[in-house]
Amino acid sequence: MKLSTQMYSYVLTCALTGLATVPATAEPIVIKLSHVVAVNTPKGQGAERFKKLAEERTQGRVKIEVYPNSQLFKDKEDIEAMQLGSVQMLIETTSKFGPVGAKEFEVFDLPFITPDRDSFLRVADGPIGKKMLQSLEKYGIKGLAFWDAGFRVMSANRPLHRLADYKGLKMRINSSRVIDAQMRALGAIPQTLAFSEVYQGLQTGVVDGQENVMSNLWVNKFFEVQKHISITHHSHLAYAVIANKKFWDGLPDDIRTLLEGAVRDSTTYANQLGAEEEIDSIEKIKASGRSTIYVPSKAEIDELKKATSPLYQMMEGRLGRDNIAAVVKAAGGGVP
To answer: Which CATH number is 250's domain given?
Structure first.
């Protein structure tokens, strides 16, 4: 085919500048992002904000497909699915990195280790948090950020005021050796259930109660099948935004930089929502009249602290003594 002088000049210019290597009709990079909670939770809204920012900033070169509510995978399946490349990104509870091999992440599950939001963020956003995220790379996982979904509380169909109130209760937990030990220290019987099975488990009596953040109690309607909620604030529900390392490292440099910025900004947004949604969820549940909300006294919280404090020494072999000490120091607290 004979080219005109004008077309020949255009093709030559493209070849010399590298423009011809990027077709104008290139398909967008599709990233599947999966998580287990509802869209209208801090985690769900954070995922939607990431989608919006990522697609806007890459000007359509990236398409984010968000799959909430365990639409793709259940709790025990999602990390392996991401490692295999079936999904590219997850927003994952840090407790679930223990079975992968990264047991040190379960330090966030130690009772009362981060007594307030600022103490959690000092750990998550500081050198300790960065080191923990980097440690995931040997498992084929790129750790991008920590998200704080707020304080965990306890719920059951009987009042939870004193330590004795927990005795014999079957309490749903997510998979974590630390949380398992914590429940046993309280006299409860831990039961691991996938998040998608919690409502039915509570409704049918498979479990008597559970621990969670207030926004999940409201949005997922757990308050409908739990008569009593105790604002124990015994730990934070920590999430990590993660990606398949091979996929993430293989992205064009400019795209990866834009996505990292979108992760940072959606992290700020999600963390702020976690604090706001607790207050909002408490008010909505109170207004529903379906569940009684109780704020334990200092003496009652101290009783829980005393019962669970042996976990700090008990878990040194699993979490690392130095790791626990570093988190306690960065959080600005002390072993309860």
So the answer is: 3.40.190.170
Which residues touch 29 (CB under 8 Å, ≥6 apart)? Answer: 61, 62, 63, 251, 255
Note the Cα 56 to chain centre separation in Å: 24
Assigned token pair, 20: 């011809």
* Mean pLDDT lowest among 24-28, 43-47, 279-283, 329-333: 24-28
pLDDT attached to residue 16: 40
Convert 186-208 to b/e letters by CB count within 10 Å (16 or more is b): bebbbbebbbeebbebbeeeebb
State how many domains the chain has: 1
Q: Measured at the alpha carbon of residue 235, what is the angle toward residues 230 and 238, in degrees to the nearest 5?
A: 125
Q: What is the pLDDT of residue 50?
A: 98
> How much is the pTM?
0.84
Dihedral angle, C-alpha 117, 120, 125, 127, nearest 10 °? 150
Which helix (H) or strand (E) segment holds residue 249: the answer is helix 245-249
- What DSSP character marks residue 112? T
* Residue 159 backbone phi and psi in degrees, to 5: -60, 140
C-beta of residue 154 within 8 angstroms of C-beta of residue 161: no
Residue 3 lies in a domain: no
74: number of Cβ within 10 Å? 13
**Confidence grade of residue 335 (pLDDT, cut at 50, 70, 90):** low
Q: What is the pLDDT of residue 328?
A: 95
**In what helix (H) or strand (E) does residue 150 lie, and over which residues does it extend?**
strand 141-156
In one letter, which amino acid is 288?
S
Work out the average pLDDT over 253-257. 97
5 falls within a domain:
no
Q: How does residue 37 score in pLDDT terms, banded at 50, 70 and 90?
A: confident
Expressed as residue numbers, the domain containing 324 is: 27-331
Tens digit of pLDDT for each residue in 74-88?
Answer: 767 889 899 999 999
